[in-house]
Each structure stands twice: as C-alpha cells, then as structure tokens.
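Q: What does the predicted 3D structure of Lipase look like?
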Amino acid sequence: MPNLLNYIEEVAYQDFYDLPLNRLDILALTEIAYLPFNDLVAPDFTTEKATRLDHVATQFEALYHGDTPNLSVTITPERIQLLQLLKDAKRFKAIKVFAFIDDYDKGEEKQFAALTYKVGQDKLVTIFRGTDDTIIGWKEDFHMTYMAEIPAQQSATAYLQQIMDMSTQTVYVAGHSKGGNLAIYASSQMTTADQKRIAQIIAYDSPGVHPSVIASSGYQAIKDRIQPIIPQNSIVGMLLETPDNAEIVESKAFGLLQHISFSWEVEGHDFKLAPALTENSIQVDETLKTWTASLNDEELKRFFDLLFGMFIDAGIERLNDFTIDTPKKISLLMRQQQNLTDAEKDMLDRLFRRLIDTRYQIWKEALTTPYDKVNQWFQSLTHKDKEE
C-alpha cells in the first residue's frame, strides 16, 4: 500500500489552491522537523529571515555530503528521502521555514525543538519535534506520568505565544509523538483571542495530556479542533488520557514499529483508516495505566530517576551511544546497578516485577473473558430452557 512518500510524489505538481493543505502535508512537514536544521534555519521569529524549503534541503545535502549524520533515532533514510522529495516538488519547495529552536538542557531535564513554516500568504504551520535519541528526552517523557507540566511544555507554550505575537495569520499546530502532546498543551495555554486563530491541532501518535489540562477552560475551548491520529497497534498514542476522537490508521509494520509514520498506509489524499485498535494495543494501554495508577507520584519519580540515572552516570547520554563499544557500555551499566543501595535495588526490582505481573494478569484476563462470555450466554440459554 502507498505511504507518505508515495503521496508526496503523487501531489508534487499540485498547488495548495487546487488541493488545500491537509494532514498528510502537515505530517510531511512534521517528519522533517526531526532533521538537524540548527545551522540551516534561523532562530528568528520573523518571516523576513525565513528560508525556502528547497534552499534548506540543498544546504542540508551540502553540509552532510550524502552521509547520514550519526543520530540513528531521529535522522533516518526515510526522512532524508522525504526532504529530497519536498525539495523537488512544486507543491512544497517554496514553503518558507523559520524560528528553528533546538533546546537541550541536561540540568533542567528538557529536550525541546520546534520550527514554523509559512505556507502561502495566509497560513503558518508550527511543528513541535517529538522525542529525539537523548536519554534526557526519554526521561522527560516519563515525567508526564506524574507531572502536570514538564519543561518542554513550558517551552512549547512560550514558543507558540511568540508565533502568535509576530503574526495575524491562521496557525496550524502539530507534532509527532511527544511533539503532538506539546502541540495540544501549548494550544490550550493560549488566550481566547489567539486560540481563535488556531485552525487545527494534529497529534500524530502522541501521548495524551494530564487530566488537569483536560479539565482546564483553555483545553475545552480548543478540544473540537484537536485531531489525534494513531496506528492500529498504538502504544505511545495511548499513554495518559486516551483520546476519545482519535482516528485509527492502517499500518504495515508490527508492534511498536507502527509508531513510525512512514509505515502508515495512505489512500488517495488521506490515511487509510482501520476499523479498530489491535487487542495488543488495548492490553498494553491497560497494563501501563494500571501500573502507574498503583504507584504514587513519589514512587514514579524515584523509579524513573534511578532507571535513567544509571544510563547518564554510565556516560550514555544518547541511545546511539550503545552502538559504540557496546560491551563496554553494558559493563558500565552493570557497574552503575551495583553501585545502587539495597533499598534502591529492591525498589527497582519490586516495580519491574509489578509491571510484568500486571501485564500477565491483563493478558490472562483477555484470554478468559471470551470463555466467560460464552459460558454466561450458555447458562442463560440453559436457564431459559428450564423455565420453558
């Protein structure tokens, strides 16, 4: 089945007047936001400093000379191919890019990146990047299980406010993975006047937001413009508050690999929709929610601080660090584990065991539920026959 790359090839010569901006276009702009544009797109929040997308792509090629930068999670062959397709496509090449911010703060435990596109004369598309390959980025994600606001959400709010202040145009806000969470959160924090200019908020397989955000008046004001899109076997997109109006798309990948949007199937100028989530997605979602609900905020904080702290103390700051001298990295991790106190080891072991046991119990219940339903149905028929 066709995917995002096939769609870009198909619509390459159609302008936005003939085929209006849609969520596949925005997904394409979201995906290339993972690429390192630090020296290619100005951080200025003014369109005067904006650079055409085809110029950015040309500079990217010149900078890396066809070699993929050594960031395995964020810089993939598909994203580089996508950038090349956008550069050559009449539909996308003249889009302007500006306000690129890449803010990584180890001390603050923050990983945040964003950029904005000017599409035509009347539209801005603000994209928040999802989690990159930094351990701090992943740790910050898990902070969302017990924190009402994480540092990246504060930065996203400030970023979107600057976009609102510098223009009067219609704004689309989007992101993949954590980026979609940031898009929803930041949009919910805008003033009523600014929210009226937000046409749509698209969250591509993104974690939900904290219940306190959902209860806020700012969220309620824009909830009808939030469009969550998740694959059949979504795991990331089911975290926290599960979206009520999510659209489920077909994916040709398996398991967690469905989080990669290039695996999502396209039909015409939109996603190919699936009838329902897989049983595995539902079970994993129930497992994580049950596990986190069984712990208090302090237990969750201590667990994630210890878990990710071992990686950081071992000098592993990026997932890609594992690919360099892997045996040594594993040895350093084991050494860090040995340095933990008995109480710390006990806590990690206890919570991991609880997570595994929770997953097993939910899997077992899923196996017995169909039998229970059939048994109840059979007993009801038997009871009815006796009455007759």
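A (community wiki): The structure tokens above were generated from the sequence. The first helix runs from residue 4 to 10. DSSP finds 14 helices and ten strands in the chain.
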